[in-house]
Write a structure and sequence with these properties.
Length: 168
C-alpha cells in the first residue's frame, strides 16, 4: 500500500508547501514521496527519494501500469515544461509562480533520461495539446541526448533549454 505523508515547505530546495500540495509531493520521516497518477487522476504509485544513502525506488508501480508524467494533473494547455526529475519540476514551478500565476504546466518524466522518450511517446497526445513545449533536462551527457530524442518525437513546437552550467 502507498505511504501517507505531509505536504511541507522544503527550504533547502526553495520549495513551498503550496507547491508540494499542488504536485502532491509528501514527506514522511526522512523520505520524500512523489505521488504518480493514472489517467483517471488516482494515485497509483510513488517514487521514493531517500537521502542517507541517496537513492530512489518505486512503491506500487506494476508492469503494464503507465503512470502519468509527474504534475500532469495540473494542466493541459498553454506552455509545457518537461524536466528530468520531480525536484526539478517542483523548483521550476516554484520559480514561475513565486510572484504570479503563469499559464505554464511543469512536469517531469518518471524515470531516468535514457528512457524519457518512452514517457513522451506514452503521453504524446496530451503533450500535443500545448502551444509550446520546453524540454529542460540535466546538462549531463544522458540529459543532452535525451532532450534531443524527445524533441524529435514532439516535433516543431519543442524547444530545448541547454547550457545552464550545472547538472541538476
Amino acid at each position: 500500500s502507498l505511504v501517507q505523508g505531509e505536504h511541507k515547505d522544503l527550504p533547502e530546495w526553495g520549495i513551498t508547501k503550496r507547491t508540494c500540495e499542488e504536485f502532491d509531493y509528501v514527506v514522511n520521516g526522512d523520505r520524500h514521496f512523489a505521488n504518480y497518477r493514472d489517467s483517471d487522476g488516482l494515485v497509483v504509485c510513488q517514487h521514493i527519494r531517500t537521502f542517507n544513502p541517496k537513492g530512489f525506488r518505486w512503491l506500487g508501480r506494476r508492469a503494464g501500469v503507465k503512470p502519468q508524467l509527474f504534475g500532469q494533473h495540473l494542466g493541459n494547455s498553454g506552455h509545457l515544461i518537461i524536466t528530468e526529475g520531480e525536484k526539478d519540476a517542483l523548483a521550476t514551478h516554484e520559480s514561475l509562480t513565486r510572484k504570479e500565476r503563469h499559464k505554464t504546466t511543469v512536469v517531469s518524466v518518471p524515470d531516468v533520461a535514457q528512457s524519457a522518450h518512452n514517457a513522451i511517446v506514452e503521453h504524446l497526445g496530451w503533450i500535443g495539446g500545448f502551444d509550446k513545449v520546453t524540454i529542460m533536462f540535466d546538462s549531463d551527457e544522458p540529459g543532452i541526448k535525451a532532450s534531443a530524442r524527445c524533441a524529435e518525437i514532439i516535433g516543431p513546437k519543442a524547444r530545448i533549454v541547454t547550457g545552464l552550467g550545472y547538472k541538476d
